[in-house]
Write the structure tokens for this entry.
Amino acid sequence: HTELCSVLSATGQHAEAIKECEEGVRFENGSPEAHAALFSASKAGGRPLAEILRELDLAVGRFRDNEALLALATDFYFESGNFPYTAELLQRLTSLKPNAAIYHGFLAEVLLALERDTESLSEARKALHLEPDSPYANYAMGLIFFELGQHEEAEQAFGNVRSDLPRFKFAPYYKAVSQKERGRPEEAIATLRDLVSRFPDVFDFQE
């Protein structure tokens, strides 16, 4: 059921995919993989938020130490703006995977949004120590420096965010603002033009 669910979801047959996923949860002893497939199909199929949250909370509560489920839940709650619960899930992930820079960097970003600045800096430093080129680590450090008004360090950190993942799309924007703050408007304009070329559906740049 779970495999067929994933195939149906990938081909846009969301209603059928959700049915197969629900069968997978029932008949495959509610495995983490079945719950993850149901969540992905439900999200892609546009199910009501309350239903998705109920399914997700059930899965995360049942499989508290499953990395894949926790990672899915973390992304979902972050996108939903529930930063306190996102931080809680990320702290669980950093305990499970203490050497994974991605989770420390992501946690640093969320803690900064919660105005827990000291903890945020600590997590960002851990992420950088583990993986100096991690986009999660550098993005978090960039945000910290930007908030502190340290635009030279912010520009450098955002420049080290080498990833095309949509969640990092604001890195070049913050980099451009830091360049402008440092008295280099021409470079800021060039950075923004490049940003618009990469994400034309998100950003509209006018000089």
